[in-house]
Amino acid sequence: DAGVIQSPRHEVTEMGQEVTLRCKPISGHDYLFWYRQTMMRGLELLIYFNNNVPIDDSGMPEDRFSAKMPNASFSTLKIQPSEPRDSAVYFCASSLGGQGAGSPLHFGNGTRLTVT
Amino acid sequence: AQSVAQPEDQVNVAEGNPLTVKCTYSVSGNPYLFWYVQYPNRGLQFLLKYITGDNLVKGSYGFEAEFNKSQTSFHLKKPSALVSDSALYFCAVRDTGRRALTFGSGTRLQVQP
């Protein structure tokens, strides 16, 4: 049973470049979450979707960040232009809404982004 | 607003001894509480959850957690620690009506042989 798949695992880019992170949730899961992990701020929720519709994007830092979910099996998080302070590990997670509020999140292995 | 506090940055314990990793929470409604573990360069793995019912919940790898409503705590425990339990542990809470989890700052568990 494949888990949440994220790509790439590592991304190194220069300041000002566009970065696109990708996520494939677990098949059948109807919730998808994007989190960011840094030493200073810990795990922060950026945005989450239900049935491909964004529900809460209040954690998106600024307009340079955007997320899409064009279908149930794919989501992207884009940063344009990137800045050194965006360096972090970005996690995608999915969950099954039918299990109710007790449904755990299943995480991918993350994308480590370094902006120089 | 919901929040979680993990008061210890690091917990050190000798192999074979019992371990406790502390967590307190704040929610406006009924709490849904979770524990996750993170190994280096990996995503978070679900360990256990409390929804309702018995205050002592059992999870993966021999871990358990005790829910205490009066103290708003949800401490993670294991009777006998293993070196392989060394990792970063996160407590998380979900408030009623919200699907996203709010995570604590994490506690690094170091089990010495």
Order of helices and strands of chain A: EEEEEEEEEEE
Which whole number gives the mean pLDDT of chain A? 95
Q: How many β-strands of chain A, per DSSP?
A: 11
Outline type of chain B: globular
Low-confidence stretches of chain B: none
The main sheet of chain B comes to: 6 strands, mixed
How far from one another are the termini of chain A? 37 Å
Q: What is the structure about, briefly put?
A:
Chain A is mostly beta strands and 116 residues long. Chain A has strands spanning 5-7, 10-13, 19-24, 31-38, 42-50, 53-56, 65-71, 74-79, 88-95, 106-107, 111-115.
Question: What can you see in these coordinates?
Answer:
The complex is a heterodimer of chains A (116) and B (113). Chain A has strands at residues 5-7, 10-13, 19-24, 31-38, 42-50, 53-56, 65-71, 74-79, 88-95, 106-107, 111-115. In chain A, 0% of the residues lie in helices and 53% in strands. In chain A, strand 7 (65-71) and strand 8 form a beta hairpin. The model of chain A has no long low-confidence stretch (mean pLDDT 95). Chain A starts with a strand and ends with a strand. Chain A has 116 residues and is mainly beta. In chain B, the strands form 3 sheets. In chain B, strands 2, 5, 6, 10, 11 and 12 form a 6-stranded mixed β-sheet that branches. A 4-stranded antiparallel β-sheet of chain B has the order 3-9-8-7, with no helix packed on it. In chain B, strand 10 (87-94) and strand 11 form a beta hairpin. The termini of chain B are far apart. Chain A binds chain B through residues 4, 31, 33, 42-43, 45, 48, 50, 55-56, 91, 93, 95, 97, 101-102, 104-110, and chain B through 32, 34, 36, 41-46, 49, 51, 90, 94, 96, 98-106.
